[in-house]
Amino acid sequence: MDPAAVPDRPVVRASDADREATVTRLQCAVGEGRIDLSEFGERVEAAYAAGTLADLAALVADLPPDEPPPVEIVGTQTRTELSSVFGDIRLSGPGAAPARASTVFGDVRLDLRGLRTDADRVEIHVQTRFGDVDVVVAEGVDAELHGRTVFGDRRTELAPVPRLAGTPRVVVHARSVLGDLRLRSLAPGESASRWRALVDRLAQRHLPPPSLS
User: Fold this and answer.
1) In angstroms, rounded to a whole number, what is the distance separating the alpha carbons of residues 78 and 172?
2) DSSP 3
3) Which stretches in the chain have pLDDT values below 50?
4) Which of 49, 59, 91, 157 could lock onto 184 through a cystine, CB 3.0 to 4.6 A?
5) N-terminal to C-terminal alpha carbon distance within the chain
């Protein structure tokens, strides 16, 4: 067969949804440290200017392929991943703990007092470059904090109370460059906000809150 007689593969034009999907993959990649901020900016600019699907594919060709969404199985821990670039990550309420949470410019705050799992051990990997990491567990939950920060403090503040039966050991692996790493325990219903918690304690003692001025 004459090669000249074989028609060229048609060029498929990229849609706005295709471009946004590529940018989302790039956000995950920079959050995981696979590309640096300079590469991220260049690729995002190229993604929004891309005209075809082939142009978009070239921007993520050196990144791992998208994994299928996790399948939820009742009675076991659902492994999820939370990522951002410019913004905070906040998680609270009942449910499973994320396996990973990462951002570049922002804080990561995980309130795990509503953690539900039948696992004996839960490991969480948390990373931010310019921000704080704050993980809260329920009083009586055994928890550990591992990791380091370059310009910041690392603190573990767990209440000295008996361990709650049937709760897992929570192991937090955290990293930051400019920010604090903090693991603490709070009672059910106690506010995770320092100021709110202070006001609540003063209200219980019937004392006026301190002036903000």
Assistant:
1) 17
2) G
3) 1, 6, 73, 75-79, 195-200
4) 157
5) 86
Whole-number pLDDT of residue 195: 46
The 3-state DSSP class for residue 10 equals: coil
Residue type, 145: L
Nearest Cα neighbor of 82 from 65, 63, 103, 67 is 103
Rounded Cα distance between 203 and 213, Å, is: 19
Q: How far apart are CA 103 and CA 127, in angstroms?
A: 6
For 89, the token pair is 């990550």
Q: What is the pTM assigned to this prediction? A: 0.55
- Give pLDDT, residue 77: 44
SS (H, E, C) 109-159: EEECCCECCCCCEEEEEEEEEECCEEEEEECCCCEEEEEEEEECCEEEECC
pLDDT for the residue 1: 46
